[in-house]
Amino acid sequence: MHWKNCLFLMLISVGIVSCGSKKNALTGGKAVSMKKIIKEHENAAPDFNTLRGKLRAGYATKDQSQSITISIRMEKDKAIWLSAKLAGIIPLAKALITPKEVKYYEKINKTYFSGDFRLLSEWLGTKLDFEKVQNLLTGQTIYELNDNEYRLEENDNGYQFQSEEEAFLTKLFLLNPKTFKTEAQQLVREKENQSVTVTYPEYQEISGFQFPKKISIIANQAGESTKIDIEYRSLEFEVPVDFPFSIPSGYKEITIE
What we know:
alpha+beta, 15-stranded mixed β-sheet, 15 strands
């Protein structure tokens, strides 16, 4: 996997977990229990307007490994801006994501994309939007939880939500039993032999809320595996942010059929 796909995967992956010994599924009072847990998870969402910081993203396949530095800026519910550099010095790519569009360019092959979420959605194989990307980066479940679509179980690690049986897609979410933050997420497409796994090994408390410090991603496709480790190195909240983005001239557009 090339570094530019590392940037894509960091933005859109969702992940896994069904670890620990299983306890009885919550039945009987299921609706009340699920609603309470879901509400606590919603209340655990980071409370901020703007964010600015840096993160380190390393990826590894069986053939290669690479580490890049990414600057991140965010205005909650409005924009996510990313700028990737090699060794913290050499510019590689920029991305700007808003609720209406995705813009992206990379310098090595001099290509760019400007359009809707189809590029990201097709790369992952599931429909994406701005809220899903934002949730991934802030430790919330990428899909909204509800008491109709999911089965709730307790295991030794927390509350596990699993989607009801579907032919094309299985979704799993594991919530911490104390903080109600996402410990892991998963999408599995068994027929396509695809899965993407995201775990949150460590959180940090900032301004009274829990925010991810580390994110670990494993993508499996057709028997090949890619691992990406992300670590937020510095974060500032409620600071002025801007989102400079201009596609250089002479770049070739990435098109989607």
